[in-house]
Structure formats: structure tokens, C-alpha cells
Amino acid sequence: MKVLLIDDNQDITGLLSKFFRIEGFENVVTNDPRNGLERIKKEKYDVILLDISMPEFSGWDIIHALEKEKILKDQKIIIFSADSFTKSKVNALLKKKGIHGYLEKPIQLDKLLTEITC
Questions:
Q1: Would you write out the chain's pLDDT as a tens digit for each of its 118 residues?
Q2: Right CATH number for 2-117 from 3.40.640.10, 1.25.40.10, 3.10.150.10, 3.40.50.2300?
Q3: How far apart are CA 93 and CA 91, in angstroms?
Q4: How far apart are alpha carbons 8 and 24 in whole angstroms?
Q5: Rounded Cα–Cα distance for residues 42 and 55 (Å)
Q6: Which of 11, 37, 52, 99 would staple 59 via disulfide (CB 3.0–4.6 Å)?
């Protein structure tokens, strides 16, 4: 399984990358959301783990760009964030084809594994 991890926090991406390697998943990490968007356009990933709240260019921007190019529906994106979202906002996100899950930070690794493998 090939996972793309997009988060501006290098501590988080470092820990999650190590976790994925231990679990036997190939993973690509980027701390630059614009680079993450370009990677999504150029390569196919089994799962994309996307931080929704990043400065300057956010996960929302990535989602909107993918929708505009009509390729969001072809993705398996799991959103994660330290920000608390209302249940209605989470449900609205999950209704978008291509968005498959939502996790709050700090991420519980067992829940992350379940989301990725489902």
C-alpha cells in the first residue's frame, strides 16, 4: 500500500512515516501542501492522509483544486486536524466523493490503521 502524507508539521510526518514503515506501508511525505497537490496529480496513491489546517495553502485548498480538476472522486483521502470541527462540517466533508475519513489530532494509531485499511 502506498500512502501520501501531507502535513506542515515535520514532527508529525516523521513519526507517522516511521509508523507506516513499521506497518509495512510504502509512504511519501511532504511538508509543503502545494508539493502534495502536485504529487496527487502526477502519481496514484492508495491513501492520502491530509492535514486540513495548514497556513498559506491548506488542505481545503487541495480539496478545492482536486474538485476543480474533477479528480477528487478518484482519491482516497483521510482528513486529519488539530482543529475541532462540528459534526455537520465533518459530515459535509465526508459526503464529498474522494474523502473517506476524518481523524482528530492527536491521532490514535489504531484508528489511523483502521481508516487506512478499510
A1: 999 999 999 999 999 999 999 999 999 999 999 999 999 999 999 999 999 989 899 999 999 999 999 999 999 999 998 776 767 777 888 899 999 999 988 889 999 999 998 8
A2: 3.40.50.2300
A3: 5
A4: 23
A5: 23
A6: 52
